[in-house]
């Protein structure tokens, strides 16, 4: 493995390291840990969060990008007996031991995934626990360190080894793990400046000497720098619901749980230099290649053993013939005309080349199930630009009619898979997810996890509570933070004079905000993503660690959406939309009272009474047109054609409103201002929007026509404009 390194003369690698994914315990941001590792001249780093693999993929990618060899591990909780036994314990200390596990290769990583999943789904009791049976079954490719002072081995050693009986227990522990892991088992010693570690170290060194077992020195890293210790202490207070002044609470003594330099580690272990150096030997034996970029999409069984692309084409042609029935503009003698076929062939060609026919069939299948069972559904976003989506009844807008570009959705140069967001009737969304679970297997489908992070206001409130500052005063401070999406505390101090003045003049509030800034952005809790569902070709525990949200039975991924997609799994968005529920119920009520079944998709788009209502701004309860601001804009715009409604919705954004685009559009529409076209091509493209660039498709068309830039390449400009990855 090639790693960029300016190795110090004495080798060392951190093999026991917690990030903020050791929720409300670790205070280390993964990016900062990796950067500090680089600065310290180390070529490898391990991540061993408490009982989970939440940060594993983020760590792997960031370490690889930095030229650091990533060692994915976790600090496991081991049940004293069976992981299924629950009872008799008065707390987590009685319910489990700690153990440090590191993946040595891809096989070891897969085994860690299975262990971490089983710990949460099968062994949860105070903590997510595995047991020795599970450990033995999934030991291949895993390096095992005996663990911190809370491990089974350390607890045995701390009882004393000065008698034969006392020594026997420690020996039996070592012997069992050595039988399972062989030369991949090491006795772990630490020195973060606390007495219990010193006592464990003395006994561990002696047992290792008597049994001829290898020692390795680690540091129980919980944050990046010594000055982060206060912030980590605040996290512990938040975790336990205690005040910082409470002398009986859980805390970590001192400020020595930071990411030490190699020289600092050697200084802490005089006479045990070989144990410090062994960490590098262990790290050098690790080579984890996760093969990111491969896809593990589920199979879709086509009728009559047809190829997926052939069945997809068949469905598309059938769907378009239904959609365009009676439409002379799209049909010639009952057949799709050349323009439609050319567009369809082009889209299917790209889909086939990228290997995504199965993806579209899977989406079609569950949307078709929804249609058959009267569950309203529609696509949103760039997928509406695909004629294939229109043909499959995923979306209900003809992209040819409204000049929507397929390249905004998918093109041959795109490396990420397509992403079709589907809205369902909110009251019946769960039925569709259940159908998918039944079809592909409950073990192969689950919702995706997400992390609640400490945003600016939350960081202030949680820190204030830990410091014991009166709630009323804390609320005063949070109200000083500007009401801006994703505002950070440093930005808040720049923007709010009141907050800055309070910070400068009140020492208590200065400490509050300084500590809040240190924990801002760290993960606080695990939740379930509102829409995202993952579907795999095998049980998900083969690919991604799983868990349950506290107090719920639903299984979710331990990874967030971006990591799930990076692992090559199929992510689908099943969104619940209240507007579809309202429309569905309205149609049912009309049928109940009049006996007529109406279809909103067939409503005329030139109804004068409807436009009059819009021009008066009487749109309370109308989806996306109900806020006070957009009702004011409707009265100014006075839409009299369907494209005006589209433009109004698109223009009601901070940029166009603040940049004068809206004023220009309205003035030109009502003849108070003349449109301005710098080039004849612009008149062709911008004519429908009064010379104003309103849509991304218009920008792409201009780049294509004037700059001869392919539409696929033009989309990269759009991503830059919209600050997408």
The CATH architecture assignment of the largest domain turns out to be Alpha-Beta Barrel
Low-confidence stretches: 1-8
The value of Rg in angstroms is 30 Å
Give a quick account of the main beta sheet: strands, pairing sense, barrel closure: 7 strands, mixed
Tally of DSSP helical segments:
31
Determine and state the CATH class of the largest domain: Alpha Beta
In CATH terms, the superfamily of the largest domain is: Metal-dependent hydrolases
Query: Oligomeric status of the shown chains?
Result: single chain
Within the CATH hierarchy, at the fold level, what is the topology of the largest domain? TIM Barrel
Please give the share of residues in helix: 40-55%
Structural class: alpha/beta
Shape summary: globular
Beta strands, count: 16
Percentage of residues in strands: 5-15%
Domains, number: 4
Overall mean pLDDT stands at 93
SSE blueprint and pairings:
Elements: H1 30-39, E1 44-50, H2 56-65, E2 69-78, H3 92-95, E3 97-103, H4 106-121, E4 129-130, H5 132-137, E5 142-145, H6 152-158, H7 164-181, E6 185-190, H8 195-211, E7 215-218, H9 229-240, H10 262-268, H11 273-284, H12 308-323, E8 331-332, E9 335-336, H13 338-354, H14 357-372, E10 377-380, H15 387-391, E11 421-425, H16 429-440, E12 445-453, H17 456-467, H18 471-479, H19 489-495, H20 497-505, H21 507-519, E13 523-535, E14 546-548, E15 555-557, H22 561-566, E16 570-577, H23 578-594, H24 608-615, H25 628-637, H26 642-651, H27 654-659, H28 661-669, H29 680-686, H30 696-707, H31 711-721
Parallel strand pairs: 1-2, 2-4, 5-6, 6-7, 11-16
Antiparallel strand pairs: 2-3, 3-5, 8-9, 10-11, 12-13, 13-16, 14-15
Helix pairs in contact: 6-7, 6-8, 9-17, 9-21, 12-13, 12-14, 14-16, 17-18, 17-21, 19-20, 20-21, 25-26, 29-30, 30-31
